[in-house]
Protein: Muconate cycloisomerase
Organism: Bisbaumannia pacifica
Amino acid sequence: MSAVIQSIDTQLVDLPTIRPHQLSMTTMACQTLVIVRLRDSDGIEGLGEGTTIGGLAYGPESPESIKRNIDTYLAPLLIGQEASNINALRARLARHARGNMIAKSALETALLDAQGKRLGLSVAELLGGARQTHLPVLWTLASGDTQKDIDEAELRLAQRRHCDFKLKIGARSVAEDVAHVAAIKAALGERASVRVDVNQAWDETSAVRGIHALQEAGIELIEQPIPAREHAGLVRLANRFRVPMLADEAVQDARDGLDLVGAGFGGAFALKIAKAGGPLGAIELGRLAQTAGIGLYGGTLLEGTIGTAASLHAWATLGEMAWGTEMFGPLLLKDDIVAEPLDFHDFGVELPSGPGLGVTLDEDKLAHYSRQ
Ligand code: MUC
Ligand code: MG
């Protein structure tokens, strides 16, 4: 069953969010997905998605650069190549193009989707098989308003949709952030796990002050308190506090994971397909963490359904993750571009079944939300 990659098309899709989503570096009212459609000579189409947060606010790739770099540089490296040897295609992209991990993740996802469809296997089966099919999913409270966040958490608990909450902080002063988080934790009590994501906003001294107070307030996990490259500082914070540190921006791939483990980091790692250049790189980091006894967390860059499904297939192969997942991206968007949305219930989501990602496009919706 051999096929050649014939064409790769990319589209920018702008979807409004259900409410403003406030992070330390930007407030989002809309999410832009870069949708990849990869067609092979046997007529099979693979879908992929490359998505970031807030244009260039989160990282060095923007939706526009992802699209342009796929169209100009990455797609030509793949077109005409044999479609089914994904390891070889991944190596080819790595050899001829540096960085651009989100763009590479979108392409690798499309290759996996196509190969799964070709063989009649789900992406998780292609990757060795799923060890779980219902994955826990937390919700991020980021309206910027304490009472609105509490009301939102109460609603999600009552709906049995989420019982773990992540609060985005770092845009305001440490004292204001701590008061906001402590009020939410006090309102929810033992009914919910409350964590924070600082998205690199603090220096180490502010982090010591902030984390001390957050630990006292009963917060369970502190995500990326200081800048990504400050590995030594993150190790110091992890050693200093009882509350665990979650490395996110600090750990893009297995290379970073190895450095942090080597430096004595004992916290947890957030995996994201977008950081590692696709599901395969994220699984490499996950396996390294499992070998080193580091707890895992399934992370998102707030992808829509295609990127979320690709991540779920990867996380499912790793077995239970100590800190669950945050694969709620589609729920933050007002609408979707797929025919069948993911099934969120009982504090988690079902792994989609069917060949490939198990996701089909709704062509009308795609056309409606595509940027002209
Ligand atoms: C991040 O840094 O974790 C994940 C959830 C959310 O609200 O933002 C993202 C990015
Ligand atoms: Mg994070």
User: Anything to note?
Assistant: DSSP finds 13 helices and 13 strands in the chain. The radius of gyration is 20 Å. The pocket of magnesium ion (ligand 2) is lined by residues 197, 199, 223-224, 248, 270 (CB under 6 Å).
